[in-house]
Amino acid sequence: MKYIKRFSIIDRVFHLGLMLTFLIQTATGFSRLYITTNWGKKLCYLFGGYENAALIHHRWGVIMMVLFLVHVIYLLPKIKGKRIFGPDSLVPNLDDFRHAWQRILWFFGIGSPPKLDRWAYWEKFDYWAVFWGMPLLVITGLMLMYPMVSSRVVPGWSLNVASLLHKAEAILAVTYVFIVHFFIGHLRPSSFPMNEGMFSGCVSLEDSLEEKPAWVNRLKEEGQLELATGSPPALWFRVLYFIFGYAALGFGIYLMVNLIVYSRYVSLH
Amino acid sequence: MTGMKRCGAIVLISETLLLLTLIFTPRIASAQGEEVASALRRYKEYEVSTGYYEEYEMRPRHERSMVAIPGVRHGLFRYSPSAATVRIRTRLADSHLGIKFYDNRRCEDCHPKQALDMHTVRANLTCRQCHGGEPIASISHYFSPMNPIRKHAYVCAKCHEGSSASFASYVIHEPSAGSMEAKTNFPVLYYSFWFMLTLLVGTLAFFIPHSILVGLRELLRKKEKEIKDADEVH
Questions:
Q1: pLDDT in tens, A185-243
Q2: Among A181, A190, A209, B178, which residue's Cβ finds the most Cβ atoms within 10 Å?
Q3: Is there a contact between B200 and A151 if contact means CB atoms under 8 Å apart?
Q4: Are residues B121 and B48 part of one domain?
């Protein structure tokens, strides 16, 4: 079985960093939002109480922010003319809307599945959802972290708005990641038990030919397919990322279930 | 005997006069004439009474940058509709003046929503820790510690060291973000709430059915393929 390269080591490190910071931020942040419930209290004990959970949330928030800034710096030299709208770019284009429509029809058995290129429309959405959410969370987060400083620049009542936006965006991100992203990455039949691409960096040619035929064709035309006959990832590495991936999945589902169960006992403020 | 009678009459008249003067004299307030007392003592006295402060200590400023209170407009426009219901009590020295059985009531009997904010629920603050003891002056009363001209220094700064007037414009008893009350009193909060809710519902309304259909369609395709493969073998 042939393997083709999909993610560079840098992409994978960014994803790993995002996973770690995201899970920590979710657990510490929501343990504080849910502090009035029994579950929230228990989760907060895990981080050393209400105050300490905030401290951890702040520290890891800064790490998350730095990772995001590094990612933006990493992106800057990649912006080159027409390639922004090219098939290797994550920038959405008109084809994505066409593909989405074609695929929805295909769900109901009408027509053939769209000939997707390297990045499908839902993958682009995944990326840009994080990309838009991150500045919002960072700005509102910093405002709440340094209320005295921020109220010098903006009126103090914008802290009410910042607090609301921070929580609402967190709920949006957590719901999307723990339901939609996890389902796409782990549970749908073509990914089950796990879509390994983001950890091993390569995907099998067979799977790609089925889901992303345009990408494979393009590689073939460019003559890169002959070069990109990667070997499957080492077994020890696969075991490692399966354990890690499933730990994250389990923790995420545990959080999501409790967030839904206890949601009627908390309000946004 | 006449001497005794005269004496009694003098006592009666003087007592009546005394009672009359008691009626017409102002209430005894310990804060008066305390300029020389220590700052700490003055501060305490200030807290028990509605507070008397010389005008030179704290004057309202008309031009303050970046300070505004949602729902409170000075000048151009009238009070908001919801403020109209409490307008009559916004400038009293004792905001609860004339309320029946006031002594036997708890704050949350009449202000249940106000007891559910973050300061009360999370930080376990009591109402009195910010609003002070009796009598509680109206927020817009000139000498009230809650008056926005000095709230940051006399209330917020007790815990939030270095709080500014702008910082103090943080709305503690914020209206429920999606409510009509918020729309009139705090429109920014109201619109950001509905924007985020629309975004959340919109995203999930597309991607949850999308995910379910992906799962279903791929499952069916897998079955199709298995049947095909089995046919090819035979």
A1: 888 888 888 888 899 888 888 888 888 988 888 888 887 776 666 677 889 999 999 99
A2: A181
A3: no
A4: yes
In a shared domain, residues B165 and B201:
no
Distance from CA of B57 to the nearest CA of A (A): 23
pLDDT digits (tens, 9 = 90+) for B168-223: 989 999 888 999 888 888 889 999 999 999 999 999 999 999 999 999 998 888 77
A160 contacts B189? CB cut-off 8 A: yes
Enumerate residues 199 to 258 of chain A having a beta carbon within 8 A of any beta carbon in chain B. Answer: none
Residue where one domain finishes, among candidates B124, B144, B173? B173
Whether the link from the prior residue into A193 is cis, omega within 30° of 0, is: yes
The answer to whether B218 contacts chain A (CB < 8 Å) is yes
> How far from chain centre, in Å, is Cα B91?
15
Residue of B nearest to A158 (CA): B170
Q: Which residues of A touch B70 (CB under 8 A)?
A: 157
Q: Looking at this predicted complex, what is its ipTM?
A: 0.92
Residue B104's domain spans which residues? 36-56+71-173
Cα B190 from Cα B211, distance rounded (Å): 31
Question: Nearest-CA distance from A150 to chain B in Å?
Answer: 8
The count of structural domains within chain B is 2
Helix-strand-coil percent breakdown of chain A, rounded to 5? Answer: 70, 5, 25
Cα A216 to the center of its chain, rounded Å: 25
Within 10 angstroms of residue A120's Cβ, the number of other Cβ atoms is 19
Same domain, B226 and B162: no
Q: Are residues B206 and B135 in the same domain?
A: no
Q: Which CATH class is domain A10-190+241-265?
A: mainly alpha
Note whether B170 contacts A184, CB cutoff 8 Å.
Answer: no
Longest Cα–Cα distance of chain B, Å, equals: 142
User: Does B215 contact A188 at a Cβ distance shorter than 8 Å?
Assistant: yes
